[in-house]
Description:
Elements: H1 3-26, E1 39-47, E2 53-61, E3 65-70, H2 76-83, E4 87-89, E5 98-100, H3 101-119, E6 126-132, H4 134-149, E7 156-160, H5 168-177, E8 181-186, E9 198-200, E10 207-209, E11 216-219, H6 226-230, H7 232-240, H8 244-253
Parallel strand pairs: 3-6, 6-7, 7-8, 8-11
Antiparallel strand pairs: 1-2, 2-3, 4-5, 9-10
Amino acid sequence: MSSNQAFEERxxxxxxxxxxxxxxxNNIDGAFTVPMGYSVSHIIHAKSLGQIRERFGFILESxxxxxxxxxxxxxxxxxxxxxxxxxxKFKYIKEDCxxxxxxxxxxxxxxxxxxxxxxxxxxxxxxYITGHSLGGALATLCAADIAANTEYNTPHLYTYGSPRTxxxxxxQACSKHVPNSxxxxxxxxxxxxxxxxxxxxxxRDKRYYYSHVQTFCPLSFQKGSVSLNHALGSYFRELSxxxxxxxxxxxxxxxxxxxxxxxxxxxxxxx
Length: 271
């Protein structure tokens, strides 16, 4: 298998994993579909801006690898956190850098339980960290933290439609700590352009500077609305066009695992 094919199949698979973070949140009992060969080793709980403790994802383990997946925004409270775009020092790495205050506060509230759970797992396994939307920002913070402070010093980061997470110094530090980083973003996804590169609160002089982390893996699709251009199901559908047979096998192996998308005629999936 070529490196490009391996990347595309991994991107499709992790997009489906991200979809289950929303299923987990929306089900009262937190149930979700676990891919074949994996087991759940930890449920991530974090505090939203309103100090409401919620399910924000999970850690999965297989004989070969570990996956940490973070949920995106599923409530008004989460969107308020997205709007809280002032910055604070990201204290978990030695570099002097700033990160989005709202995202950092959410991640910080989950950090202790997450790192404790990770410490009980075999450090020799390959680690993937992933998330969509707000979850992409949380995954980015987590990847930099874990790479700098644990035995899992070479995590692989895959994000989908992630907003900017920190200042240029944070982006540079993240590239250093997490070189295996893939920021998959639709060119027509508004969420991928916030916060703006220069953010300023009304009636204040203070400016905050934001940069995206590397490496940018662009997609280009328009689904007719802002929400559909950002929806995880839209990302999954577009990525599935790259490896249609793999996507079909993945979805057939575990009904309910793949994000809901419109029906795709077989011929439209040909590359």
